[in-house]
């Protein structure tokens, strides 16, 4: 949590929230730093109905009834929108998306989120999630995500998406970068 350093009054989004662990950790971090966690806007989305239900219950059990948790496929139909029906933007975006998943391009809403389209087959949705997260991030926001190591080394569209994401977001290499790699985004623990 220290990497993205959320503060009271900020908006935090997890587009693949699962059972809500990262959102709960954000609330706990604010509390540990002496802030009021009620002064935090928490939003999340989960595609699997059962997991979404567990997340909603988890939020209630942890006293976070104000969290806005929605159920739908984030890549195809993002649910959090602003008053102009555009993607809502957040101060902090945190996610641990499902690794190496396929996605379906047909009927994707807000296709402008994706500068580079990954092949639909071959379990290539990893960098589609990264592109969505960048699209949901405010210009001065911070993002942290966990990705499988494969996204760091595969070529083709994934290399193009890495380079595009790095240049668009102004990302710098991290200490986990492979030797000689200069476009590693700092938001990946296993960076390119």
Protein topology:
Layout: E1 11-14, H1 21-32, E2 41-46, H2 49-61, E3 68-71, E4 90-95, H3 126-135, E5 137-145, H4 150-153, H5 157-169
Parallel strand pairs: 1-2, 1-4, 2-3, 4-5
Written description of the protein model:
By secondary structure, the protein is of the alpha/beta class. It has a single domain (11-169), classed as Vaccinia Virus protein VP39 (Rossmann fold, 3-Layer(aba) Sandwich). The protein contains five helices and five strands; from the N terminus they run E-H-E-H-E-E-H-E-H-H. The chain has helices at residues 21-32, 49-61, 126-135, 150-153, 157-169; strands at residues 11-14, 41-46, 68-71, 90-95, 137-145. It has a five-stranded parallel sheet with strand order 3-2-1-4-5. Helix 3 (126-135) runs parallel beside helix 5. The chain is globular, with a radius of gyration of 16 Å.
